[in-house]
Task: inverse folding
């Protein structure tokens, strides 16, 4: 009986701990040789996302806006979706800053992208956006 209780407790706490990473991984969509990074956008805040790639030979980054409104009008909350594609084997760091019109940074999301020999992309991330 004690063994069953112990097993149930271990499974319960294992499931509980897996949920702790949800915020960090909620904005990543992994495809074969592409990773999409989704960053929330609040149109009324005056802030927008900007990014810098430290090694543009390794990855390319393209941006798409998807609004929460049905007709994707301006001044609508939504997401900036950045598609990161592997160009050649290596490592690149992309820093996304959530800045106002005075270039003051509110949040920062930093991603290290690793591209393998088959141009598959993996990532590690850190920064104030995930805290």
Result:
């Amino acid at each position: 009986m004690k063994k069953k209780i112990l097993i149930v407790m271990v499974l319960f706490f294992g499931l509980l701990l897996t949920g702790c990473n949800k915020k960090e991984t909620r904005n990543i969509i992994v495809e074969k040789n592409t990773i999409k990074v989704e960053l929330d956008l609040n149109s009324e805040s005056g802030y927008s996302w900007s990014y810098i790639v430290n090694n543009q030979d390794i990855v390319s980054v393209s941006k798409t806006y998807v609004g929460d409104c049905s007709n994707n009008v301006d001044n609508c909350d939504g997401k900036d979706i950045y598609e990161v594609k592997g160009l050649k084997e290596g490592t690149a760091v992309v820093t996304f800053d959530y800045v106002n019109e005075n270039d003051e940074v509110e949040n920062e999301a930093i991603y290290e992208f690793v591209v393998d020999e088959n141009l598959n992309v993996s990532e590690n991330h850190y920064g104030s956006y995930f805290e």
